[in-house]
Amino acid sequence: MIAADFNYEAPTSLDEAFTLLRKYGDEAKILSGGHSLIPMMKLRFASPECIIDINNIPGLSDITREGDIMKIGALVREAQVEHAAELLEHFPIFADVTKLIADPQVRNMGTVGGNLAHGDAANDHPAVMMALRASVVIAGADGTRVVPIDEFFFGFYSTAIQPDEILTEIQIPMPSPYTGSAYHKLERKVGDYATAGVAVQLTIDANGICTYAGIGLTNVNPLPMRAARSEEALVGKKITDETIAEAARYASDDCNPSADLRGDVEYKRAMVGVLTKRMIHKAAQRAVA
Amino acid sequence: MAATTPAADTAQKQAITLKVNRKTYKLDVEPRETLLDVLRERLDLTGSKKGCDHGQCGACTVHVDGRTANACLLLAVMQQGREITTIEGIAPGGKTNGQERLHPLQAAFIKHDGLQCGYCTPGQIMSGVAVLRDGHADSPAEIREWMSGNICRCGAYAGIVAAIESVKKGDTIG
Ligand SMILES: Cc1cc2nc3c(=O)[nH]c(=O)nc-3n(C[C@H](O)[C@H](O)[C@H](O)COP(=O)(O)OP(=O)(O)OC[C@H]3O[C@@H](n4cnc5c(N)ncnc54)[C@H](O)[C@@H]3O)c2cc1C
Ligand code: FES
Ligand code: FES
Question: Is A46 in the B-facing interface, judged by CB distances under 8 Å?
Answer without folding.
Answer: no
